[in-house]
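Lab channel / #folding
Pinned by the channel admin:
"Please post every new chain as: sequence first, then the structure tokens as a reply. Keep commentary short and put observations after the output so the thread stays searchable."

First post following the new format, from NK:
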Amino acid sequence: MKRAFMCLILAAPFTRSSGQGVFDNQTIAALQKVIGDYPHRFENIRGRVLDQRSQTTDFQSTVEIPGAIHCTVSKYKSPEKDLYSWTCLLYSNNSFNNSKNEFKSLYNQIANSIIKLQGEKAFILNGSYNDPDERQNINSVMFQLLPAPGEMQKLKIELQLFRKQSDWDIRLMVYEQDTAAEIPSSSARR
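Reply from TO:
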């Protein structure tokens, strides 16, 4: 018994802690892959074409958050340059309170997590939580990568709780800052 106790004490420093870090949950692991492919315009995570319109092409994402309803990569044609976004529909429920609780849970999984990209310093996902209001059709948290060098400063990570007819949906989006103004309302960010 004494010997087993000593082994346990000696092994304790090598066990993984449950605090947030680079790979503490599958949501962050997937998000890290998406963010890592942002400089390549999500080329490495684009799967088959799901829908193609004159200004927008939606692709199935090869990176998905476990349990998500669906994840897509969208390409938006623009006169200056093509813009890309990654959108993952995580949850849908007709109860605002259930959706609000899930939104808070997802925020807690993401906030202050560490993202480590190959060849870069670690980033921290920083975003301020505001309690969702049922009277608002869209409630969102914008996350920033801190510190964000160069091109990564344009990257936006947004967690949204929004009303879609009688349901409340939650989606996670990764997109370039300029993309939000260019995206047609009928696109994959539905």
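NK: DSSP finds four helices and nine strands in the chain.
TO: also worth noting, Residues 20-182 form one domain.
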